[in-house]
Amino acid sequence: MSRRVARPYATALFQVTQKEGVAALREIEGQLAAVAELFRLEPALVRVFEVPSVSPAVKLELVNTIAKTLALRPEAHRMLVALEHHVRLRYLDEVVAFFRELVDRKEGLVRGRVELPGAPREEQVAALAKALAELLGTRVELDVKLRQELLAGFVVRVGSRVFDGSLLAQVRRFASSAAGE
After folding, report:
1. 116: containing domain
2. 74-101: per-residue pLDDT in tens?
3. Going by C-beta distance under 8 Å and a sequence separation of 6 or more, which residues neighbour residue 51?
4. Can you give the CATH number for the domain in which 54 is found?
5. Do 120 and 57 belong together in one domain?
6. What number of other Cβ atoms are within 10 A of residue 76's Cβ?
7. Taking the CB of residue 88, how many other CB atoms lie within 10 A of it?
8. If you placed Cys at 14, which of 102, 108, 125, 156 could pair as Cys (CB 3.0 to 4.6 Å)?
9. Helix (H) or strand (E) holding 17
10. Which residues lie closer than 8 Å to 25 by C-beta, 6 or more apart?
11. CA 137 to CA 145: how far, in whole Å?
């Protein structure tokens, strides 16, 4: 449900601001992400916007204070006002995530995650991202997640694709092929 609510807001913001270029889009994304982080750290703050006993004027003043304190661009400020007006500030995290996807798509970037049993060297992650970029025909940025239970190998998730080169997957494939003989 939240993704369905967030999509129109993120899309509208993207359409209005895309002419300003990727740098401006990333700045707006970062600013809204900072507000979302503030809401994550202070959940009572989000609840203030949802309580009917708090007047709309007080809520708007609070949004304006947040925008001024964080020096938000006008577009980011207007997004917060729109979300507050429609009692949707609880979905800001999802708006930011969907907006990030739109900006990534404009930049030709795909985000993925590599799961490894131990901490990799930077050049290993860069080499893997480069190989995936060549395979997928787009720029790839990887986040690293440590999973000691893998023991060896790796698992890469990029979009809906999964590349499983873990020891566990190799053992399963071996067992499956041995059982079939």
Report:
1. 108-180
2. 999 999 999 999 989 999 999 999 999 8
3. none
4. 1.10.520
5. no
6. 23
7. 18
8. 102
9. helix 2-17
10. 14, 17, 18, 99, 103, 106
11. 24
